[in-house]
Structures are given as C-alpha cells and as structure tokens.
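TA notes, week 10

Several of you asked for a full example with nothing omitted. So below is the full record: structure tokens for the whole chain, then the designed sequence directly under it. When grading your own attempts, check the secondary structure regions first.
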C-alpha cells in the first residue's frame, strides 16, 4: 500500500531527501515534529560545544521556530541535516559575538561611571539636593535670595 504522503516514508529512509523538506515546506506538522525530535538533542549537544547548555537549548529552539515560520521561503538544498547544523553553528557564533559586544559596552559604561558608582555619596546626592532645595524654598524671601547669591546663583 502506498502512503498518502510519500515524503513521510522517504523521510524515514533518507533524512537528506528533498521530500523531507517538501513535507515541511508544505506545512506538514507531523514531518516537522519527527524532524524536530530526531535532531533536537544532537543539535543541542553540538551547540553546547560553543555556548553554555542553557543558551544552546534556546538557540536550537529559536532556530527551529524560525525554520518553521520561514519554511515557505527557505532553500535548504540537498541536506536538511547539514542545514540544521550549519544554522545552529552560525547562531552560536552570533550569540558569542553579541555577548562580547554587550560585555564591551558594559565595561565602557562602567569605566565612565566608576567614580560615581564607587562613591557612596552619589546615591545620597539626589535626596540631599531635594532636601536642600525644599529647605531653601521654606526660607523667608530675603534669606532665600541671600543664600542663592552666596552660591553664585541668581
């Protein structure tokens, strides 16, 4: 008996066949689920060679979601397996690059604000400034004017 969807039978025999990708491109969730289950663990293991395990799983999941969302527009070529592993590797490289960029930005901001952050008075400054301004506003007008003039204000 011939199966309704020949690419399912071919998928089991040859995971690199165009029929597998044709099934996914056609929106066959069964074919996609089997492909996901077959490759999820190996892809996570592969990604964990580049990034931490928690990031590896997220990268693989995101790649699979993107693959499903863009399935009608993607060209896989002859090997779905090669495409999946290459996509995961590239996403790992991007994650590493983005992490280094974020780290570099944090270091730069930290170096520019270190003197304020290390100074405990910095955290009190805003509260103190508000309290002083409130106290000055409560002074009689002549005292308030004298205080401001003594501080170089007008």
């Amino acid at each position: 008996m011939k199966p309704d969807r020949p690419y399912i039978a071919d998928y089991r025999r040859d995971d690199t066949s165009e029929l597998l990708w044709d099934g996914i491109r056609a929106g066959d969730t069964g074919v996609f689920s089997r492909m996901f289950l077959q490759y999820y663990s190996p892809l996570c293991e592969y990604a964990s060679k580049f990034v931490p395990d928690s990031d590896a799983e997220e990268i693989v999941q995101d790649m699979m979601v993107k693959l499903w969302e863009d399935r009608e527009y993607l060209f896989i070529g002859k090997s779905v397996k090669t495409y999946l592993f290459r996509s995961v590797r590239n996403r790992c490289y991007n994650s590493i690059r983005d992490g280094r960029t974020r780290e570099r930005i944090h270091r730069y901001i930290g170096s520019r604000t270190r003197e304020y952050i290390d100074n405990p008075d910095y955290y009190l400054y805003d509260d103190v400034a508000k309290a002083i301004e409130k106290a000055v506003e409560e002074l009689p007008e002549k005292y308030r004017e004298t205080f401001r003039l003594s501080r170089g204000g007008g």
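DSSP finds seven helices and no strands in the chain. Use that as a sanity check on your answer.
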